[in-house]
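Could someone model zinc ion with this protein?
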Amino acid sequence: MKKIIYILIFILGTFGKTFSQDYNEYYFKFEITDQSELDTITQIISIDNVMGLEVFAYANQQELDEFQKMDYKIEFLQKDVSKSIAMATTVAEMSSWNRYPTYSVYRQLLKNFESNYPSICKLDSIGTTKNGRKLYVLKISDNVNIEENEPEFLYTSTIHGDEATGFVLMLRLADSLLTSYNSKPKITNLVNEIEIFINPNANPDGTYYGGDNTVSSARRYNANGVDLNRDFPDPRIGANTPYQPETQIMMDFAEQHNFVMAANFHGGAEVMNYPWDTWTSSQNSHADTDWFERICTNYVTIARTVLSNYMSSIRSDGVTEGGDWYVITGGRQDYMSYWHQCREVTIEISNTKLLDVENLNKYWNYNKISLLNYMNECLYGVRGVVKSVEGFPLDAMIWIIDHDSSGDSSMVFTDSDLGDYHRLIEPGLYDIVASSEGYSSDTAKNVSVTLNNTTWLNFNLVAKDDSISLKTYPALINDTLFFDQLITHDIVISNDSSAAFTNYEIEIENGAENQWIELNNYSGTLYGTENDTVVVSINSNLLNAGYFSANILLTSADSKMDTVPVHIIVKDTISTEIEPIIIIDTLWGGEISDYEIFIENNGLISLNYAIQIEDNESNQWISLDKHIGNLLITEIDTIKASVTTQGFGFGNFNCNIIIEKENSTNDTIPVSIYVKDTVSVQIEPEFIIDTIWGGESSDYNLMIKNDGLISINYSIQIEDEESNQWISLDNHIGELLITEIDTIKASVITQGFGFGNFNCNIIIEKENSSNDTIPVNINIKDTINFKIDPTFINDTLNPDTIKEFPVVISNTGPGTIKYTSLIGYVTKSEPWIILTNDEGIINGGNNDTIFVTIDTKDLTSGNYTCALIISEESGKSQDIPINIFVNFAQSVELMNDITEFKLYPNPFSEQIRLEFFTFRVSHFNLSIYNIWGNTVFEKNIATLNNEKHDIILNNIFSVQNLPNGIYFIQISTSNYKITRKIIKN
Ligand SMILES: [Zn+2]
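Reply:
Sure, complex below.
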């Protein structure tokens, strides 16, 4: 057991973790503008990694709710779930170390270690988690059941349940130590000389969150939704009650031991991280920083002999002081180092938290030598025993003069069971004091420590006659002052020994350098159980703003009795509170937004200030409504910062608002505005794909609609226009007001460009915005040339007549055509019309004749219409309209009601024109059908005999608005009808 020198009395800050009732765990990232923002954020959520200004973090529901008040733009992330997580369901399946154990296999493996190696391995359960799982610790050492004069060393892993690489590596390390004992000298030496403790999994409820048989749902937090590595007492912030079960178990375990050195394994990054996590190195660098740097560098150097870029994700040298990466509070590393004087580092072992099982062997190979070397470090430095001259082991403090700092808790204490101490330190010459209550201190001068060696130094202390015992209260002074402020604290010194009287001296350590702190009394005598009060005066008038610390030392009869650390922060008297600390927003281009900035004078004097935009000239998008002001004490000013986005383009706009305070430092409010593209257009179609015949032309309408918030200028063009002359646009620039639509016609002409696929892009450039692209893909089909004669058949036949009409198909092109023919649009179903052949092949330059046979034997008097449809294999077709009038009144002159019918253009897009003559009728009907036979237009039109009609259909019906496709146009009288297929493009 060891003595705890500090009586831990901490005032809980306004921040205190409370139990979360909602056990969700969220993973997300966000951006900060300055590392210092993390000091606040780290006390709200669990930061996992910081890469530049990008922060990755976890939170439970309550932490997330709190964090969201800070207005960071959060991007939620998938948790790092591995792809192949093979589980070992038997101990035998762990033999290749390429699986994660189920919880029962984990337990059995540990039990097997103990039963197979009882003389060097002992298994302990140090406590039970909320979900009933055990925290196991293996002790591996020779004479495992006896506490020897050996350093106690601890490896612990997976306090974050999903960071499981270390979990498997710890099991493998234990296996390796046990199986190689007495065969490998290096391992044998470690087991003989060190009491090795291994806790493979510090958060089994997190690792087995998905149940005992899988780690695939492993998560960071414990079953209560708390990050255990933020749950420990913190040297800067203080205690953090109530503690989670796992935390309390680990604290009790640490209390029962005297760990000299430790490491805890994490994942999600690859770096060696040494104390402190709660302070940056510039705020408070550990007294043994050089030692930490060296052993961490050794770890990385050896690992890199296996994988040269291992541990380079955070720092190129693979080593960082914790707070310099990012500050956390309540971490285990700082707890162990501060409260137990242990040297603990955090080893971030794999960038992937839950490694694919096939990578577990690789990570073992990277680390296996370093794991052993790291343990070996606890054998070096200065070690020995402190005993009374009578030979009793003592509970003593080992203090290195001009090196140790009680603010760092860098001194070490003996393990009172054997009196052994182990002071790991860099090579050098040191004056070392051993002190124990009731004994005269002893100082060893010029103790030499060399690299990778052990300096043995024993102390034998002489008991003091008067058995002095002094206690001080408080144990720590922590305060915040303004400039020129004087505050006092009372230190109560009490004599709790049985001595009749006790003399004491109280002094400021390095008093010459610490004149800002004074005592009203430097020595005294206590009679019996009397108390003395020493007034500590702290005067900030000698100090600048910042953090200061010193120690008040209490001695009695040359024995160092107690140390009261003093930590103060000196604030500007000109103290302002400024809100917000940052302005982050996303605006639409064209939008105007105002932000209120509050400046409160919470200092001790009235204040003149000036507020301005840094680099005002180039940041005209932001302005302030006020530039100077005066604030009386407690007064608040509100300044409006207006951001206008019109005319400044889009993207990120950053600047600083600087608040200059008379006689004081400046404050800065970073402003980050993201201006979204208001130039939002809707373009149709998204692409043009078509197949057209060689020689044909085709038009495509492009529609550009401005659905953004400002008017836009655009230009539209064919990419690589020179080589895409087959396509052209009827318009190249335009301006669109809000909601306005422009239509641009893209015309494709195929004549003279050959056949095949033609591709290009139509590019729409918008002022101050990104381009849009409409890909065009036109397949130009080879022209099939054939001519058909006649192009229509019109005849008047007598009843009971058979007449053949030859239709000649001439192949006027060079290739071979293959055609089919059929009768379509037949007005009467009886077989009054037949074809001699319905298919054929015609070589270039040849022709073929189809005979259309009309048989009127079953027909009554009247008009019969149909069409001969001749289709070429490639899809091109031509209709030959057939109109037969069966005439019973043979004396009547054969004459149609409608003659010389012409229709053009066909196909059409904008307009269509009809020309014909009418005879003998006073009215005719003009109608249009779609392909389903539905009437889309119908009109009865009056006419004279022998009147020429020239109808531009657009004048009576908007044919240009018809959807593209096939239609039929029909002119009919009471006994005559003419029908034509028309195609709308
Ligand atoms: Zn972690």
